[in-house]
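Re: beginner question about structure tokens

> Can someone show what the tokenized structure looks like for a real chain? I only ever see the sequence side.

Sure, here's an example I had lying around. Input first:
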Amino acid sequence: MSLTNSQYDMIMQLYANERTANQNMIDQRYEEITCLSPEFKDIESAIINLSIKSASMRILGDTSEDYEQKIAELDKRKKEILNQLHKPSNYLNPIFTCPLCKDTGYIGQDKCSCFVKKAVDLVYLDSNLKNITDNENFNTFSYKWYNKNTVDSSTGLTPFDNMHQVVYICKDFVNTFDTSFSNILLFGDTGTGKTFLTNCIAKELLDSSHSVIYLTAIELFNRFEQQDFVKFGEEKHYNTHYLLDCDLLIIDDLGTEFGNSYTNSKLFYVINERLLRQKSTIISTNLSLYSIREIYSERIFSRISSAYKILKLFGDDIRILKKTKGLTSK
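And the corresponding structure tokens:
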């Protein structure tokens, strides 16, 4: 397990905080109802007394009185009172942040998916990603930076038309994420929107409680180095377990790292393991497909070309366009 004892304790404390907050909400609702209808509290007391009597009679083998019927009638009256107060019948039911594990972190002996998400958020604090996605998401995406006139010879599309197709595929990736396993490679020149699109996808999946890890290629390989090359006696600060098991791994700017046989072997390991585990990956790069084949070997390129949706982005450098617009508007 990749969590230290203190990290595990922090996660379990988060669950305790959630349970406390949810119980406080139920207590506030109960106080609200009993203030509006004192009868409701009397019914609660009557149900408790009848339940105790019913249990005692069952032990003694006395079934002469139908306590269960009386309790059912009182429960019905409680629902009538809630309805009269314009509250749903489940208004006072237990509240759970995660209904699957009931805010315990476990389903039986197995960790719940919400535990994995909490662990990812803790081990890989991607607050920077979350802050970025507030501004870079599908709602803020604009096609105005993409040329409508120049046609790309390899695709027969203008940058504008091509981006419409790319965004459609990216949105479909999000919409079918839980029902269809897929991966994406975004490649193209600098400033054509690759990172922006990965942030759009990350935003949608983070908002729907999926675990997402975003790392540049340099950061990805640094994680492995910090795990694999720990000096004797030093504490291991990183474990790559969650790189393989998170719902979505985003590797940005592949090709900017210092490449060697070690990084190539780790890239193949991540790509191959996530394919075997049916965990989605998005890779963005400025490299051409030919360069990917030449730099990262045939077997890596084979995995990508066979299992990834390959999307080419082209057009003007949006960063330069924005700077130019900013200068001309002054």
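Each token stands for a local structural state, so reading them left to right follows the chain. The beta strands are 106-107, 110-111, 184-188, 212-216, 248-254, 280-285, 309-313.
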